[in-house]
Design goal:
The protein is an alpha/beta fold. The protein has 2 domains: 82 residues; 112 residues, no CATH class. 46% of the residues lie in helices and 16% in strands. It has 7 helices and 7 strands; from the N terminus they run αααβββββαββααα. It has a 5-stranded mixed β-barrel. The longest helix has 48 residues. 18% of the residues are buried. The N terminus is likely disordered. One of its GO terms (molecular function) is sodium channel regulator activity. It comes from Papilio machaon. This is Protein tipE. Keywords: Membrane, Transmembrane, Transmembrane helix.
């Protein structure tokens, strides 16, 4: 009998503590007989999960907002230029170009267009304007200068957008490489099939498509994932819909 009483006392520490007090008396917070109950393992796990849920929700909400702003930022800088480049249908194999005119212009009125701009959102008062002659045949290193050209005096741009940011785009270096005193007489260039007046120095189908996919997929994936987790945790309708089967199984059937 004494063994049974000791086992019950070990399973219920609160009951054992209360049983030492005289009947009719209670232990207050200031009493030496007062011993606060320790939280159970389930209570600790619930507390940890609530804190984890709070901080995770905060991070997911911030990520969703940043994903929206990132997508809006990438539209004019990556998505729109990539779509225009794809629609321009540049030839995959470079043709032959030779500089026909190079002008280093100044003032805004003379820089209505430019072969290279360092910055895609600001107007420039100084610019390089390069025009080239085009021969629509594959470029071969060391080949002689063509005697006949398919197109003449075409606008020559550094890339399909005609602009970029340092250090990837340096307009002074670009002008010196293609129109400087030591520039080659002929060089490879890429021309558009839908815009005959457009010729560029740099073009890559793989990098254009890769940039477009990353700009569309990454922000969208982060936004959808964050919103889905937040809806599952905090939206009662979504939570009930996802756990409908669990709720149904929690009720006993009539036969039971």
């Amino acid at each position: 009998m004494s063994t049974l009483s000791r086992s019950r006392a070990s399973l219920s520490p609160a009951a054992s503590e209360r049983s030492t007090l005289p009947m009719g008396e209670s232990a207050g917070p200031g009493s030496p007989a007062f011993k606060p109950l320790e939280p159970t393992r389930e209570q600790l796990l619930n507390h940890f999960f609530e804190r984890f849920k709070f901080y995770t929700s905060l991070c997911l909400g911030t990520s969703a907002i940043l994903a929206v702003f990132a997508f809006l930022f990438l539209i004019p800088f990556v998505v729109e230029p990539a779509i225009q480049t794809i629609l321009a249908e540049f030839v995959p194999e470079a043709g032959i170009c030779s500089v026909s005119e190079h002008v280093h212009a100044e003032t805004l009125t003379n820089c209505t267009w430019a072969s290279c701009r360092e910055g895609c959102t600001t107007a420039h008062t100084k610019c390089h304007k390069i025009r080239v002659n085009l021969a629509r045949k594959p470029f071969v290193e060391g080949a002689p200068v063509p005697t006949e050209w398919d197109e003449t005096d075409l606008r020559f741009l550094i890339n399909p957008e005609g602009c970029g940011y340092p250090p990837r785009v340096n307009c002074s270096v670009f002008a010196n490489d293609y129109a400087g005193p030591r520039a080659p007489k002929i060089f490879p260039c890429y021309y558009s099939l839908t815009r005959p007046d457009l010729v560029v120095a740099r073009y890559s189908w793989e990098s254009t498509v890769r940039g477009l996919i990353l700009a569309l997929v990454l922000p969208t994936t982060v936004f959808v994932f964050s919103l889905s987790v937040l809806a599952y945790w905090h939206c009662r309708c979504c939570n009930k819909a996802c756990n409908r089967r669990v709720h149904a199984e929690s009720f006993a059937s009539k036969e039971e």
